[in-house]
Please model this.
Amino acid sequence: MSFAHKIAVSALALAVSAGAALAGGHEDFWKKAAEPYQGVTLRGVTESSPPSLYIREVLAPQFEALTGIRVDIETTSWDQMFDKAIKDMEAGTGIYDMVYIEQDIIYSYLARNFLTDTTQLLADNPQLQAPGYDEANFTTFADYFRGDNGHLYGIPMEAFIKIYLYRTDLFGDADIQAAFKAATGRDLAPATTHAEYTEIAKFFYEYGQANDMQLWGATVQGHTGHPASWYEYFESVAPTFGVYNWGIDANNNYAASVANGGAMNSDTAKEALQWWLDLRQYAPPESNQSTWTEVGTTFGAGRAAQGLVYGENAGWIAADDTKSLVVGKVGVALPPLADGVMAAAEAGDGYIGYYDGGAFGLPSTSKQKEAAALFLEYIGQNDVQPDWAVAAPRVTNTATYDDPKVVAMNEELGGYYDMLRDKGYLFAGAPAYPFHAQVREATAPTFYKILTGDLNVSEGLDQMAAEAEASLTELGYRK
Amino acid sequence: MKKNRPVLAIVFWVLVSFLTLFPIYWLFVISVKPAVQLFSTPDVILSDPYWGNYAKVWGDRLLRSYMVNSLVISTGNAVLCTLLGFFACYALSRFNMAGKESLFFWTITNRMAPPAVFLLPLFLLMTQVYAVGDFRLLDTRIGMILVYCTFNLPFAIWTLRPTVDGIPKELDEAAYVDGASAWKVITEVVFPLCRPGLAVTLILTWVFAWNEYLLAATLTNFNARTLTTGLSEYVTTTGTEWGIMATISVFTLIPALIVFGMVQKHIVTGLTFGAVKG
Amino acid sequence: MHSNRLGWILLAPTLVILFFFGVLPFVYVVFVSFHSWNPFAANPEMIFNGADNFRKIVFDAEFLNSVGVTVTFVFFAVVSELIVGYFLAQAFMKEFPGKAIFRTIHTLPLIMAPIIVGSVWKLMMTPSIGIIPHYLNEWFGLSVNIGTSSFAAFATIVVMDIWHWTPLVTLTLIAALVSLPQDPFEQAQIDGANKRQIFFHITVPMIAPAVVATVFIRLMDALRTVDEVWMLTGGGPGSATRFVGVHIFREVFPKTNYGYGSTISVIVLYLTIVACWLLYVTMLAPRNTKKD
Model:
């Protein structure tokens, strides 16, 4: 069954049950707390995603039925979502009462005081404190949305890790295993090192060619004109080699180049980029036009044997037969790593991949903060989580992992939720930079030129490090 | 006078039509394919169409309201621009106002502006300046109708100018001699004669407004969203829903096709631009 | 004849609307263009920096590249559209069965939104699975990849633009050809002029105003192209299709570089106006003023 379909079914179920049963037994609280806000319409903007659609189609109507407060959710594309939220908050218009905060933009928003301190808001207004809501219910992912004072500035609504997906049907095939052993001298298993990963990619690429199959060795998120490629390298590849935080040292005057103490153009960074670029020869031809969504589609279409795939796609690839041809054939593993990276990650000195996701925040410019806080509490409750996780696979509350529905789903997803729970701490969100998109855009054109071969890896990364520093100087962060 | 070789002509036009229609046909093919089939080896011939996307789009209340907004905004804007453009052209054509040719050129420069950077001032104006009490122009249909004038009004003036210039002044003067008021001359003498040009202007401004994306994406939120902005909702984090997008696109083509069909015959006689009169 | 007051009254609504939605935003953009302003800089305020942005633009390789790419694109697209449009218009001047239907078919691309055109072409051109690369490979052994080949990406955008906008040119040229007087042609034939002479000495001068007017509209719109390219390549591979419109978009949307982005826009608008003004005064204005 498709997730979109599940959302529709949930919406239908809601119409039947009128939401009363979903109030978690605290109907009185919600009715009483919402009394002063009758007739209020809350407006939110978010990126179009299954969890957001679930809010729009299921949680918002439930909340309205329960409290009488109407919630309109505008879902739009990634570029538009940021632009609209930023324009509104920058100009102080107060259009939105809720904005989607992708994990990587939180530091920019906090630096500009765009967001309301929800912890403080609830502490100041005890009558708003819902019995089913507690900050302690959230997984550690919520920590990314805390300010310097430890208070929460956004209610987590989705969290994923970018994991290593592989095809269990291919990896488990006896003939393929034998052929792999004959070709490489070792057993076929998900790679733990970069060399192994490349070896597997090469093997399946040749296997696909030899058998005239639409099969390639690995996905590569290598779009030559879209920041998705930039992200794959800096967030998912470089860290597995031990280059963290884009190679920029925040504690050393935001240095990016080796000469100034950064690591963006270090030998390790260059080795990592070269490894990733070389992978493209075993990747499907559309890789050069692939963003995060096309990588998922490629994997779902059965065109790759393995790949690094964002967790939000892992769900439908593994379980949605209206979109994926590899349902039930997907396994999850940790990304391949260079020596010492795992030890560093376990010690908290590094990380092995990208922990992404987002939260709903309350803009400082909202004119209906109290009513909006009620809605944010509503979507943060443990009670609403399991159905949400089934309809749009994501987990933000610790208790959700143990719900029978989610446990069943974990099987379907090849153990993805187990990995999120047990190994999530090894992954990290974007570095705490308030200049995220700015530095990305300043260096991206050069990065695309490396991808097209107009620049070689060494020159390209040298140039990018210089551009990053120039941009940081211009923005006033680097002195 | 000219040699007619109908068979050759038809073969030629069938070929040209094939090239013209193929991308549109492909749009349709995408709209009737289930998502799982999109990323497999393509097949030119359509077999076993899947109508699920159409059911989904048709049943979506939000998309229906976007459709209404699109219709209201583009029709309102096209009518407004055509009428105002006509009045403006009449003024430029019949009066000797100081600097009118510079003014004529200046109007067209409004269409040249790269739109991206004008979004911020338009956003600020429409939220903070063009607002009365709780009402603000942002996210309203009337707001979008006015904003679209920035590119459609210049176009209307530009297309209508030769048409209005082409109506002999003697006709106006004869009517004035008969004692007609200026308003009567404009609406009952000149306006009907310009009908073909007006029809073309109407349809082309309508199409430009119907197809606009960037301004609508930024300047509407809930109440005035248009169909083209509805498309961006299907570029999601978990995959672009090409099937749904293509289906919406097919839906956007239908009204455009109807409007276009209605005035098609006027187009040939109306688009005279600077054509030399015999 | 009548006082100019009536003329101004008729013109007033147009001027008022363009003032509030065209001039005021423009004034704001000009104002911002003299400031450094990025809401996510260490200092998020607007800071006056004189002509610094304008100085910087001269050395901005990405910007200069985008101007070059755009001009090349506009040249190839508009010239091709003019040539193809002219031949199609001439072909439509003959009578043949089904002419009305073919003409309707030929105008269909016009009614498609640029963002939709970009999406369809993207799907048709996806390396290896798009129908065009697939069959080019199957039938001719050509490997076309708009993700790696700058030429393929650029050519695709030119072809896409030709597909999308040639109908507009055809329509305007049909209109011009239809309204041509027949006498000069008949006279020339009697005098024994050949086809080439007739074309260059009679047809071209007589349809020149319509051609220039059409080129003018296409030129303006092609210079502003964003939606299609954004959907198709995002400006890549590398910077091969990073048109000025796309460059500005990247500068003011993701990068929130409002100050410098405004400067680029002002410069681009200025260059466009100058180019169009030259075209206008040399080709069109004499004819318009002559009629007064």
